[in-house]
Amino acid sequence: MDGPDVTFSALVAARLLLAYAPLPEALNHDHQLSSPLTSYSRLREGIYLFDHGIDPYSGGSFRHSPLLLSLFSTVLPLTPYTSPVLWTAADAVAAWALVRIWRLRTGAKLTSRDGQVAAIYLLNPYIFLPSLALSSSSIENALALLSLMFACRGRASASLLTLACLVHLSLPSVLLLLPTLLLLITRPVSRLALPRPFGADLKRTLPLLAEFVGYGVLLTAASTLVCGNWNWAEKTWGASLTLPDLTPNPGLWWYFFTEMFDHFRPFFLMVFSVHLLIYVVPICIKFQHDILYAAFTLIGVLALFKPYPTLSDPGLFLSMFSLFPEIYPYLRHPIVTALIHLHASLLLPLFNSLWLRQGTGNANFFYASTLVFGVGNGAALLDAIWAGLRIAIGNVEDGYEVVQE
């Protein structure tokens, strides 16, 4: 067994042992680790109602996809013994996919950094804490990385089916559709230092888009068949568009709409939703020479502006930095960004406890910490965009400075 394989196996084993510790019980209801759309306790409640012949979507608490409902109520029943294994397996698959993407990007079958790439993902506290809380965001991360990995390998059907499942679980992930289609007709090799116009025929994406739509229709039909009605669409996809549950989370939406007058709500819901979409085409155009980097950047946009984020969303973005070591010398403020994240990681649980457990604070306390967290995520995203553009200029002579790319 090679060194990277030993490292990977040891990390997965340690992660599994940690999953069976008493700690996860205290994390299941933490608003930073799971949202109304990814909560394990709500998933268990929905499965219980479904098993007893009650429509879980008739209330206002269950917002998981019918795919998870049918999967975990039949094929993979959730128990205190099986759940840690399933979530550890999701993390292991995600880390394996990340390593495979790294190998495909470098064109090597085995590299010395394989173990580091896996460790950066599996040891990232933004990743393993939501997984210990059994948040379904861990499954979403695995699907996102699998879709990109299959796209890098040119396996269109597997990539599009995985992406369709991801979009079915988390509607905002549709932002990854365009870079995935473009990645399927190009190669994932690094071209950041030598940018060139996009050379592939865009018409080749049309049958791929039709295939993705076909998978989406099949999953929608299967979900409707499981539930027997269309209530699930409003409770799952509709939640990402209308924000009916204002449970606190690390995102930027919940407090804004808590304080808003009802007659302004439809307009700003439209603004916030469309705001996510406006980044897709410009980023894909700007990084047309390296579509994998465009996908990475859009994952950062999702981590920052998603309606119901958890810590695993920025965790995925930060972990993917390991795929692009060539940009490290061109990052402008990595230390400042890391310190902001450290500051936010201390403030979030502290202010959450002061407000919701101790009762000595209010919503402003926790929202202030989420703003700090948003600044950290935004700083990382902007630095990644800058470095991805700056690398094309190369070294600058003494006395000169790059002001704008």
Structure overview:
This protein has a domain at 3-227. Helix 3 (40-51) packs across helix 4 and helix 16 runs antiparallel to helix 19 (363-390). It has 405 residues and is an all-alpha fold. The termini are far apart. Helix content is 64%, strand content 0%. Pfam families: PIG-U. InterPro entries: PIG-U (IPR009600).
Counted by DSSP, the helix tally is: 19
Morphology call: globular
- SSE sequence, one letter per element: HHHHHHHHHHHHHHHHHHH
Number of strands: 0
Low-confidence runs:
none
Strand content: under 5%
**Rg result:** 21 Å
Largest sheet: none
Distance between the termini: 45 Å
Helix content: 55-70%
Class of secondary structure makeup: mainly alpha
Mean pLDDT: 90
Protein name: PIG-U-domain-containing protein
Transmembrane segments: 81-99, 120-139, 159-185, 206-232, 252-279, 291-310, 330-351, 363-389
Family: Belongs to the PIGU family.
Membrane topology: Multi-pass membrane protein
Provide a quick synopsis of the model.
This protein is mainly α. Helices cover 64% and strands 0% of the residues. The chain is globular and about 60 Å long.
Give the helix/strand layout.
Elements: H1 3-19, H2 23-27, H3 40-51, H4 66-75, H5 82-106, H6 114-122, H7 125-132, H8 137-153, H9 156-169, H10 177-184, H11 205-227, H12 231-242, H13 254-258, H14 265-277, H15 280-286, H16 291-305, H17 312-319, H18 334-356, H19 363-390
Helix pairs in contact: 1-5, 1-6, 3-4, 5-6, 5-7, 5-8, 7-17, 8-9, 8-10, 9-10, 9-11, 10-16, 15-16, 16-17, 16-19, 18-19
